[in-house]
Amino acid sequence: MILIRAILALLLLGYCGTALAGDYTLVVARSPVTVDGNGHTALTINGQLPGPTLRFTEGEDVTLHVKNTLDELTSIHWHGFILPGDMDGVPGFNGFSGIAPGKTFTYHFTVKQSGTYWYHSHAGTQEQGGLYGSIIVTPKGGDIVKSDRDYIAVLSDFTAANPDRILTNLKADPGTYNFHKRTMVDFFRDIARDGLGNTLRDRLAWGAMRMDPTDLADVSGYTFLINGKSADDNWTGLFKAGEKVRLRLVNASSMTYFDVRIPGLKMIVIQADGRNVMPVPVDELRIAVAETYDVIVVPAQEKAYTIMAESMDRSGYARGTLAPHDGMTGEIPPLRPRTLLTMADMGMEGMAGMSIAGADMGGMPGMDMSHMDHMGHTTMSGDAKDEGPPRGWVDASTPAGLRALSYADLKSLTPQKDTRAPSREIIVRLGGTMERYIWTINGKSYADAEPIQLSYGERVKLTFVNETMMAHPMHLHGMFVQLLNGQPAERLPDKHVVNVPPGQSYSVLLTADAPGEWAFHCHLLYHMESGMMRKVVVARLAAGVTAPKAGG
């Protein structure tokens, strides 16, 4: 049976490679895969993990036949694509019921954009099981930025565990996978640094909220991959000294943020979430779940350079190599220290000594957090690291003098077409109850919430208020939003994923130019599956009806 599946996969791969322009076949199946030298059974697309890279051209009419050989419903969502709602691939939206076992669904749409994107299942936890892949869309007339080499680098978190079992475990005990809780050694170290009184107040504050400052990621124990290869398998991209190499970074993880750097090389960010930005030279960047960044590097020497992607909780790393020849390896730097969350990450800076017994994951509803830093990721000097672990979600232990990418650095390469002021503001409070592992938007989980209603063509301001101790990569289907990141209105950058750090707020602008029903959710898979999702309905206005006014 395994041999038959392997032959079938090869035939399908050959078919895809020789398909007529615009016509593709993708087969969803359970297949044998090898990860880090070990055999597993995973969900695959055309027998691959990750699925094949799809290459489209802007303006192309594409037809994709997705065949489901599983014994359960499946779907494929084209992440970041502007397309009709019934082609978006979310079961229960726009009349799409998913792809039943043994059935084939044909997606058909015109590619209206260019850049780096990805696709994945939007049915249950199948994305964690392996149903994801990358997409490269070539612009009409070719790319503005020319490169000698062009590589996709899909980052992902692989587990041999059943994803549904992981979710069940989280609901039974949200700390199941937190393997880095503070110890008595940490307690005495903190006393030496902060004093007994401050240390006790800190421990009592976290205890009253029934939370742990080491809980950076709900799930740990993953094997981290680049293009399906573990660190030991060492995915390699070749170059000649002096060549311009384009790396298309895609975070296709279910739950993992990565801090990415290439020691010895400056990265020039040229694209964010598929949209061109003014070039930004950086030494590293934090890529949230579901984000994409395109960077240019120019290796000057005939040597191997390590692509280092550390998980934010420092439980491991994905590693690849840029080299002049196959088989070369660069030095792998040691993992940086793991940060600790602080009261500021709860929007509660300076409140550690207050009586907060009974506080839960919902934080302090109604708290004004407008004073908080709105940066998605800031550079930390690294000074005084010998006094203890790094502090705060944004602290990636970036060495002094090196630059980490911030949302504030992003500036659209082309002018925005819509620079209208918003007619109203919608507050989006991100909360939940950690004890029961329920995640919410505006106090309600998806099953209990009414849709967010937008009128076609209206301009709105969305303000995310994160009342939790975890970051949330918020994704709106069908439309891009513009970050209010301090750039001029005509140069605000487009994003399809907005990372909202813990304890902070962040605002974006949205032009509701896509009629239909659209999913709006946290892209941490187990947060979405536990309620942090809403339906957004964009409705065309009836004759004589006007859009809601500001404050509506």
Short synopsis of the structure:
The chain contains 6 helices and 30 strands.
Proportion in helices: 10-25%
Average pLDDT works out at 84
Shape: globular
Q: Whole-Å distance between the termini? A: 59 Å
| Poorly predicted segments | 1-20, 350-386, 543-552
Quaternary organisation of the protein chains: single chain
Main sheet strand line-up: 10-9-12-17-14-15
Structure description:
The protein has 552 residues and is mostly beta strands. It has a domain at 2-142: Cupredoxins -  blue copper proteins (Immunoglobulin-like, Sandwich). 11% of the residues lie in helices and 33% in strands. β18 (305-311) and β19 (317-323) form a beta hairpin. α4 (184-194) packs across α5. The model is unreliable at 1-20, 350-386 and 543-552 (pLDDT under 50).
Notable characteristics:
single chain, 552 residues, mainly beta, Immunoglobulin-like, six-stranded mixed sheet, 6 helices, 30 strands, globular, disordered N terminus, disordered C terminus
Topology (elements, then pairings):
Layout: H1 2-17, E1 23-35, E2 38-45, E3 54-57, E4 61-68, E5 77-79, E6 104-110, E7 115-120, H2 126-129, E8 132-138, E9 149-158, H3 163-172, H4 184-194, H5 196-208, E10 223-226, E11 235-238, E12 245-251, E13 258-261, E14 267-272, E15 275-282, E16 284-287, E17 292-297, E18 305-311, E19 317-323, E20 424-433, E21 438-441, E22 452-455, E23 459-466, E24 472-476, E25 481-483, E26 494-495, E27 497-500, E28 505-511, E29 516-522, H6 525-529, E30 533-539
Parallel strand pairs: 1-4, 3-8, 9-12, 11-19, 20-23, 22-30
Antiparallel strand pairs: 1-2, 4-6, 5-7, 7-8, 9-10, 12-17, 13-16, 13-18, 14-15, 14-17, 18-19, 20-21, 23-28, 24-27, 24-29, 25-26, 25-28, 29-30
